[in-house]
Predict the 3D structure of the following.
Amino acid sequence: MGLKNTAEAYGSIAKWFHWVTALLFFASYCTIYYREWFAESELENWSTIQLHLSIGITLGGLVTLRIIWRFLNRSPEREPGTKLQHIAVQIGHYTLYAIMIIMPITGYLSIADYLSSGRGSITYFLLFDITSFKGIQIFNLLGFSLEALEDPADFIHSYLGTWVVWLLILGHISAALYHHFIKKDKTIYKMTSIKN
């Protein structure tokens, strides 16, 4: 298996991006649900939200690299299907990429004013503090403040995270299983190391 994609399968780098992104999304959900359902102390609450934010920032960087890698590589040939199926696949993939971009950005913006005011910080995996864009005037030049972005960003992040992301993940997994068990094509083999 090579590093780059071929007509038959995704390369090891694209596979790594796919599975690490999936793992980080899962870990991100684990942290936020742990915080909501089980965290009792202030330390547990702080630790889980710091972990959630650290994972989100990692996802933002990883998805940026993933998109660059996707533009630099060919995609494997599509499996046979109707034009409608191919359009649905394209829409599904573009929507997943949009969500992978929107979630880290809205997550950060939902607390950006809180961070820039000096009331808190993100300690990236307990290693170092992430910048809070304190004193940066770009938002004022654009005619709005970080504070004005906080509520809309929080709404978008919470709504997408609670409903839309789960539906997209379920749809993505269902489509993979449909290809594997119903259509019996090579879709699942293209993104795994399992031999056909």
Q: What stands out?
A: The mean pLDDT is 89. The first helix runs from residue 12 to 37. The domain at 12-190 is CATH 1.20.950 (Fumarate Reductase Cytochrome B subunit). The chain has one domain: 12-190.
